[in-house]
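pinned: reference chain
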Amino acid sequence: MAVRLDGGASPDRRVRVQGEPVDSHPRPAPEAERGAVRRITVIGEEILRRRCRDVTKFGTPELSRLVDDMFATLHVAEGAGLAANQVDVDLRLFVWDCTDEWGVRHVGHIANPVLDEPPAAGRRLLEEGEGCLSVPGPYRTVPRPDHAVARGYDKDGKPLVIEGSGYFARCLEHETEHLHGRLYVDRLGRRERQATLREMAGSMDGVLARRAARAGARGKQF
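pinned: its structure tokens
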């Protein structure tokens, strides 16, 4: 998921890592410092339309390396969240480093996420701008529930329950959809979807150049 246009930095005292409050957390996250930057897949590539496989092997160096690489890639792309199929890996896993509208920074990863069904009573949709790192450039207004609960596991197999409201809920919903082979443009009408893809075609080269420059500035290869 791409960072919203009005997204800002949160004070470190307002940070939740893996859903738990902490006094501070480095920016960029330590995983981003350790990881290598990978190419981000773009709409039209088959892997983005495939339902991803469950993570079955936890606590492995390979899974830890993938999480690190995804954080590094997310950081140079200036995104809020990134799913594994966006770095061409067919696994149900995503990472996030996302600041919500209350100034709280959320950082973490989750494997095999399942979203709770929102209760009909009190369910509220927010219509706000949304972008995607695999649809470089455009933002569109997309209605989504204003609250989300994701249940899954961390990279070591520990059960996780991650709860979010507002923009962070949107991030959890957006990234979980990726793992089912869906993108935010699927929620648009035909004409708006076509206009979005035309806009992407005109802006993609510039977006990718900025990502490469940001990676180079951090001593990483994009």
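why pinned: The longest helix spans residues 190-217. Residues 15-212 form a domain with the Peptide Deformylase fold (CATH 3.90.45.10).
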